[in-house]
Amino acid sequence: MQKKNLIYDGTFDGFLSAVFYVFEHKIGDVSIRNGFDVQETMFSENETIMSEEAKANRVWKGLKSKLSAQGSYHIYYAFLSEKPGVENVLLDYIRYAFENTNADKDYSHPSVLKIAQIAKMVGREKHRMEAFVRFRLTKDGIYFASIEPDFNVLPIILKHFKRRYADQKWVIYDIKRHYGLFYDLDTVDIINMDFPANFDFTKTNSDYFADQEFEFQKLWKDYFKATNIKSRKNMKLHVRHVPKRYWKYLSEKQPD
């Protein structure tokens, strides 16, 4: 019998719908693949799985009854990692969880350990994004921030920014994944945007950003210079806490 590939739409509900299909049809030799990344294979059968909220909710409710709160968020965080093949590690984890109690505490199981390790990396990236996002005021009065995280963390930083910046309109845009979050003082919506061909996310262009933004950035840079004690500078430690890959989006790191 050919191995079966279940192709889903890239969403968490889509993935859980594929998991539901696996259990419903008692499929053993199976691979779950993101439809945006799938490649044709000669010795396997592909089947597209439609995302169905009701089925996804049934799987998620069942998992939450079997796992601790930490185990549940490990599954979601690991899914957001977008690591190649993570769906099949998750499927193995989920199968084990439904068959065993306290499965999420059993780090001797390879999939449980792997998912916990991936979730930790995603959690670290979440906290860094919450610390390193820098908003810039646009000419239309919206605060705009661009990010390029290793993992798809927008869904898990939403609450932090909605709570912290509840009194201003803002957009956080993931350049790598081509979508963002827009807060309009009431709700947060997922948006897609078309940018000019010459738009540089690392620069504060006067065509798009308000005059007071330039004044604020100068004050921000002056503050960092004033608080920097050269004799106590430890670049190795600094880079460990603020990796260089984030610098191009930090206003305090831009040249004068």
Overall form:
elongated
- What Rg do the Cα atoms give? 22 Å
Tally of discrete structural domains: 2
Indicate the percent of residues in helices. 40-55%
Q: How does the major sheet shape up? A: 5 strands, mixed
**SS field, number of helical segments:** 8
Strand content: 5-15%
Distance between the termini: 65 Å
Overall average pLDDT: 89
Task: Supply the helix-strand structural class.
Answer: alpha/beta
Q: Strands of the largest sheet, in order across it?
A: 4-5-6-7-8
The number of strands is 8
Report low-confidence residues grouped into runs of 5 or more: none
The H-and-E topology, N to C, reads as EHEEHHHHEEHEEEHH
Compile the SSE list and pairings.
Blueprint: E1 3-8, H1 12-24, E2 30-34, E3 44-48, H2 53-66, H3 69-80, H4 86-99, H5 110-132, E4 136-137, E5 143-147, H6 154-164, E6 170-174, E7 179-183, E8 188-191, H7 211-227, H8 235-241
Parallel strand pairs: 1-2, 1-3, 5-6
Antiparallel strand pairs: 4-5, 6-7, 7-8
Describe this structure in words.
There is one protein chain. The protein has 256 residues and is of the alpha/beta class. The protein has two domains: 3-125, no CATH class; 133-253, no CATH class. Helices cover 43% and strands 14% of the residues. The strands form two sheets. The chain has a five-stranded mixed sheet with strand order 4-5-6-7-8, with helices on one face. The chain has a three-stranded parallel sheet with strand order 2-1-3.
Could you write a compact summary of the structure shown?
This protein is α/β, with parallel strands linked by helices and 256 residues long. Helices cover 43% and strands 14% of the residues.
